[in-house]
Design a protein that fits this description.
single chain, 200 residues, seven-stranded mixed beta sheet, five-stranded mixed beta sheet, 12% helix
């Protein structure tokens, strides 16, 4: 017998209505296929059939009290290991804050191509688009000044977003609504309720 402890990314979904569940899944199915889903609440036979038919990895969370831990280091993916496509980093900015703590900011000036996977513990600034099939994950803050057709995940204190096209933005575990981004720069900040969006 082999036992390994793994860190995985999960979405905790509490269902209060079949209609809301299917509306949500229709918008986010492509993204959710990469995560473990903890399902709770009103789980009907129709919902279970949908989860099975779409080969989603899920656990029915009834009578299951899981301890959640805020990740401090880059989590391991549950996906098979794939060599990430090289993404050119145009510039690396190093600065010191008032506590003399050095932090790196990765600056990317070219479009992130389909199939590229870019993961960093540093903040990331992208001055171009994130193409469909590309994925960018930062344990810090992310700023994207082009359209997002791929997946962008920020786990820091803020994100700056201009436009979400066919893609998805996850901010500290919450999927942002595309309708909230109309092409003008907006900042997403942590709040007690999860996040808040403000115009820049």
């Amino acid at each position: 017998m082999k036992v390994k402890q793994k860190k995985i990314r999960v979405f905790d979904i509490v269902i209060d209505s079949e209609e809301k569940f299917f509306d949500y899944m229709k918008k986010n199915l492509i993204l959710l296929k990469d995560y473990l889903l903890l399902i709770d609440g009103l789980v009907t036979e129709k919902i279970e059939n949908f989860l099975e038919q779409n080969s989603l990895c899920y656990v029915l969370q009834q009578n299951c009290n899981l301890k959640t831990i805020q990740a401090k280091s880059q989590p391991q993916s549950t996906q098979p290991i794939v060599e990430p496509t090289k993404v050119e980093i145009v510039k690396e900015v190093i600065y010191q804050d008032s506590e003399t703590k050095i932090q790196n900011t990765k600056v990317i000036n070219k479009p992130i191509r389909s199939g590229a996977v870019y993961e960093s513990e540093a903040d990331i600034v992208i001055f171009n688009r994130v193409n469909s099939g590309a994925k960018v994950v930062s344990e810090g803050n992310i700023s994207v000044y082009g359209e997002i057709d791929g997946v962008v995940e920020a786990n820091g204190d803020f994100a700056v977003i201009k436009s979400i096209g066919k893609g998805y933005v996850i901010f500290n575990g919450d999927i942002l609504e595309k309708e909230d981004f109309d092409g003008g720069l907006k900042k997403v900040l942590k709040s007690e309720d999860g996040y808040k969006i403000e115009d820049l």
